[in-house]
Amino acid sequence: MATVAPAAEETPRTAPARRGWRRLPVVHQLRQSVGLQRGMLVAGLVLTAVFLLTALLAPVLAPYGYDQLRDADGAFGAQQPPSAEHWLGTTVGGYDVLSRVIYGSRTALMVIVVAIVLSLFAGVLLGLVSGYFGGWLDRVLVVVCDAVYAFPSLLLAIVMAIVISGGQSSMWGGILAAAISITVVFIPQYFRVIRAETVRIKGEAYVESARVVGAGHWRIMTRHVLRNATRTLPLILTLNASEAILTLAGLGFLGFGIEPTAAAEWGFDLNKSLSDVTSGIWWTSIFPGSAIVLVVLGLTLVGESLNDLADPRLRSRRSADTGDVGETSVVPGGSLGAGPAGLAGIEGTGGNAL
Amino acid sequence: MTTAATELAAGEPAQEDAPARSRRGGGGLGAYILIRFLLIFPTVFILVTTVFFLMRSTGDPITAALGGRLTGAELAQRVQEAGYDRPIIVQYLEYLGNVFTGDFGTTLSDRRPVTEVLATFGTATLELACYALLVAFVLGIPFGRLAAYARDRWPDAVLRVFAILCYATPVFFTGLVLKLVFASGLGWLPVAGRASTRAEIELQFLEDPTGIYLIDAIRLGDPEVIADVLEHAVLPAIALGLLTAGVFLRLVRTNVIGTLGMGYVEAARSRGVAERRLLRKHAYRPALIPIITVIGLQVALLMGGAVLTETTFEWKGLGFQLAEYLQARDFVAVQGIVAMLAVIVAVTNFVVDIIAALIDPRVRY
Predict the structure, then answer these.
(1) Contact status of B311 with chain A (Cβ, < 8 Å)
(2) Domains, in order of start, for chain A
(3) Does B168 touch chain A (CB under 8 A)?
(4) What angle in degrees, to the nearest 10, is found between the helix axes of A97-133 and A171-202?
(5) Is A292 in contact with B173 (Cβ distance < 8 A)?
(6) Is B187 within 8 Å of B180 (Cβ atoms)?
(7) Class of residue A39 by CB neighbours under 10 A (exposed 0-12, middle 13-18, buried 19+)
(8) Quick one: which of A306, A348, A342 has its CA closest to A24?
(9) Cβ of A147 and B42 within 8 Å?
(10) What CATH number does the domain containing B222 carry?
């Protein structure tokens, strides 16, 4: 679970180590889930696992290379329908569709990992510093992040892609460009969540005591605040992973993708299949598109289930004999599902909603 | 492209506002509107500034667009004529002044003011966005209510997977599949464009057209043209609308479940109010309020989605045009359109926030 693993390391271990793996995110939720929710979580985990395995084993699984145009029998030919040699047909450029779909998962995974690692570092650090020290820096950062957040993320990613690579590039250039473009979009999300948590935790008695004992700012921030502020991260990570794929595909579809000879990218292939669709050629678009849908579906199912399990209002309860009591809402301010200025925020004021 | 993440961050302000509200001891609607209005300026300023410096960090737009096609001397002359050789800070201040007076620059490739591009193509995007929102409302709200009511039973499971699928499918892939099935497969609907050539020509004869084809076609009074325009709109509207429908469905579901568990619903139930009425009147209506605020966030999502949908369906709107300028490497146009969209998004969010405050007094702070 490459997308989940980084979070696992940062999870607050409030309980002693003997409860160990059961407290890990995902494992814990899996044990806590029941019925339909467990089904959704398991389905999501299976899809995610298939995606990861495909990405890791791409050279073994793919019958041809992603940029291979011919084999011993000669050229593949363009827009060939599915056959014994090419199970999913060939593209307009004469590549094997199946191989490009398989290799596309590699590109997607690399972009996700780079984007999440970068935005996690930047967003968490900024949110922590901003929330902890407050003052004018905090205000400026909040306004900047709000402004960036309100902006269409795809347009922001386009601007970043232009800046980084001028529009087109080699494999690593393209992967980095896509990942950094996505990072810029994500930073405000991590920033907001971590900052809100930090502001809350800052007022706790144990932070006060640490200060009295003479702990430095850095120590308090990392040991006392950060460890307790990361509860929501696994959830945001899975959701952002799926968003990263969609943004990457969107960029690729608009022609900001990676050159077909440098790596396989699903969005780019869909862009090339646009003209095929008009003439009824379906295999060049359906397969890369389905790959995107399945991966995003898997990641979203995992994220969704984690969200629902974390919210007591949404969690299906199993009968009373279980010892495994669920966590209360991990989301500051209530449910993720509640809208902006939503009822979750308002409920606390105890109003009559009608 | 955000759903749950949007909702997550969207939930934040409410939570942060709570202490602010009590600290300031309330405050009237007037003060709220004023503060909210003043917030537009830093938002727009930050975005315009960010986009300017990001775009300019790659070099000047003329070299980007024409580099390689002109000799070094010609290029240098063009750059100098356009004033791109001056210090960046001077250019920035000039640009800021221009933006403040409503001048977003002139495109390099076809020498049109960016504001004119917006006026020409913006209406098409607006039309598409309206259709998409309509689809989203029609699908999202009743199904969200149904899912909440049938919570954890099979209709709920089916609808939730549907909502996640709406989110998981990129709009351009939805568009491609719709095209494959209904346009090139079954041949029921046109493949691309906003109207057939014949209808386009007829529409051009109209005096002072609104640019919104449906309105123009109705004014023209030709039923064939109206049908033609509507036929062209169906697939793009569904492709873009499904994206938002999923968000609405989930939001309505979560909120109805939330309100169903509240004290006053319980109280009404104990008074003997029928379940049906309970759902319809007591739980459902307050659950709709957050939707109004989410529409504000959807504007940003729709803008991004419109770029992709319009490219898929050759719908000649702002997004399609933006993609064209990107292909032509006309970064003045890209920067102008992006900056202008920033203004539109900021203003729309302002309007939506005000509407939300008018409907629900608890939003004000």
Answers:
(1) yes
(2) 1-32 (no CATH), 45-310 (1.10.3720.10), 321-354 (no CATH)
(3) yes
(4) 30
(5) yes
(6) no
(7) middle
(8) A306
(9) yes
(10) 1.10.3720.10
The CA distance from A19 to the nearest CA of chain B, in Å, is 30
Shortest Cα–Cα distance, A345 to chain B (Å): 5
Count of domains observed in chain B: 1
φ and ψ at residue A70, rounded to 5 degrees: -150, 155
Interface probe, candidates A277, A278, A315, chain B, greatest B C-beta count within 10 A = A277
Pick among A187, A254, A272 to test the B interface (most B CBs inside 10 A)? A254
Residue B21 counted as domain residue = no
Range of the domain at B172: 114-327
* Residue B186 domain flag: yes
Supply B56's token pair. Answer: 């300019």
| Structural domain contains residue B57 | no
The predicted pLDDT at position A333 comes to 40
Given CB atoms, is B239 within the 8 Å cutoff of chain A?
A: no
Q: Which residues of B touch A247 (CB under 8 A)?
A: 1
Six-digit token pair at B119? Answer: 């006026």
Chain B residues near residue A346 by CB distance under 8 angstroms: 14, 362
H/E segment holding residue A70: strand A70-71
Q: Do A277 and B1 touch (CB under 8 A)?
A: no
Q: Which tens digit of pLDDT belongs to each residue from B18-49?
A: 444 444 444 577 787 888 788 888 878 888 88
Read off the pTM. Answer: 0.76
Q: Flag whether residue B120 sits within 8 Å of chain A, measured between CB atoms.
A: no
Q: Which residue has the higher pLDDT, B191 or A180?
A: A180
SS3 B254: helix
- Token duo for residue A177: 């460009």
Phi-psi region of A75 (alpha: psi -120 to 50; beta: other; left: phi over 0): beta
C-beta atoms of B9 and A144 within 8 A: no
Structure tokens at A341: 């200025």
Interface confidence, given as ipTM, is 0.76
The answer as to whether B233 is a domain residue is: yes
Most confident of A338-347, B12-21, B318-327: B318-327
Q: What is the rounded average pLDDT of the residues A82-110?
A: 77
Closest CA to B342 of A143, A340, A147: A147
Please name the member of B18, B169, B346 whose beta carbon is closest to the beta carbon of A150: B346
d(CA B75, CA B81): 10
With CA atoms as reference, the chain B residue closest to A188 would be B9
